[in-house]
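Hello everyone,

My group is preparing for a crystallization screen and wants a predicted model to guide construct design. The compound we'll soak is adenosine-5'-triphosphate. Before spending weeks at the bench, it would help to have a computed complex in hand. I've included the protein sequence and the ligand's SMILES below. Output in structure-token form would be ideal because that's what our pipeline reads.
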Amino acid sequence: MKDLAEGYTTEDGRQIGPVVMEMKNITLRFGGVEAIKDISFDIREGEIRAIIGPNGAGKSSMLNVISGFYVPQEGEVWYKGSRRPAMKPYQVAEQGIARTFQNIALFEGMSVLDNVMTGRLTQMKTGLFWQSLWKGKAEHEEVANREVAERIIDFLEIQAIRKTPVSRLSYGLKKRVELARALAAEPSILLLDEPMAGMNVEEKEDMSRFILDVNDEFSTTIALIEHDMGVVMDLSDRVVVMDYGKKIGDGTPDEVRNNQDVIDAYLGVAHE
Ligand SMILES: Nc1ncnc2c1ncn2[C@@H]1O[C@H](COP(=O)(O)OP(=O)(O)OP(=O)(O)O)[C@@H](O)[C@H]1O
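Reply:
Good plan to model first. Here are the tokens for the complex, ready for your pipeline.
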């Protein structure tokens, strides 16, 4: 583990903290396909960290390793100073890691508020036993959870649609509701799976602003994978670049932009 006292100051003056998650020599195979080849990098507290790369580079696979959904055949994942054992996705959620999905995974028939409330599930302490025995405690918890959900709804400026079924929303708004649901878990690391995919320019600008605001307001560490290079370069503090399962670049947006391997592999080819 690296020296936990380390940190750095960003160009815009934000203080980035110690390493919160570290990938050490991760290799992930699907049968004969090596989706991730011996990749190491870290994520620091308060950082916006992006993983980019062309189609099939291994970004989704890497996000699934970070989220605990895939367990790599080789390598180690370190989280908050200790090695993370293989665990179920709900256990990862309990450790403060929340995510959004590339293909929106909301309950379409339910209202925005109810969807955001589902993000509170990992926080609920009162089980069915206590709910049946002591209604007051469960009610108290319900009110507290609703307050958190409402605060996030206000923050993401979706209060006008809080009672609307998700099925009636535009794609861009659905993505914002998904972000709200992930935030409702009050995660210490938020994973975003191609948050701008399928969005028009205006929706992308809104989403960028909300990602920056979330990081600023709640000090949430954010790791995202994305195709849209422009957006990522504006948003991120540091960027990992993958190509054919390998890491070919890692650094600030400027460092990555000037990396010849990255230019060859990624910037030179049409994307999207
Ligand atoms: N579940 C799986 N089973 C078999 N092969 C897989 C699986 N998931 C990914 N792969 C393969 O692993 C490689 C990396 O895929 P991955 O989806 O991680 O890349 P990506 O960078 O996210 O791509 P995209 O930008 O197109 O989503 C690809 O060759 C892909 O076909």
